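Q: How would the structure tokens look for this protein?
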Amino acid sequence: MSRKEDILQVATHLLAIKGYKDASMAELAKISGVAQGTIFYHYSTKEALFLAILKAFREDIVALFSRYRNEHQFSSGLDMVEQAIAFYLQMASQMEDRFMLLHRHDAYELAQVNPECRDCLEAIYDCLIDIFEQAILAGQKDGSIREMPARRMAMILFTMVDGLIRFHTYRLYDAGVLYEDVVQSCRVLLRKNPSEFRS
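A: Here is the predicted structure in token form.
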């Protein structure tokens, strides 16, 4: 791992724990063991550093989901939705700092005054919602999912699953115990035949 990547990794953890407003470049230098001048050489401002974290997050989501789709076989689009839920939860546990950062309010405060930050956040959410939309479209094509606006339903499914992630992030509830309920709710929302809802 390069010095620049090391800085990004430590900064991600620091910003996830303390938030954008409260984390300082001096603290990052101390924790990472890198001189502030070196940090500023790679990232000219705290804002630039934060944007680099968001851009790397998006790139990693795209790469992980692409690899996941290539390595897995799905019996139907509905199966793909269910597997996407498991994939999303697994990804969130592997990228805990980044999801914690994504769920912090100060990121959205910055996005209100920084269009590039807003674009980065939107791009991350678009990638995450795309995971569900692609599965819904596949299910509509193979007949396992009823006709509906795929993007809107993908946003609803994403909201349900991301809610579990937030429970985990804030240690409010054991999100794992709700997994089967979320999967079952998705089946009810997506299936064509109401008699299938009971399975």
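Residues 88 and 94 are 10 Å apart (CA to CA).

The chain has one domain: 50-198.

Upvote if useful.
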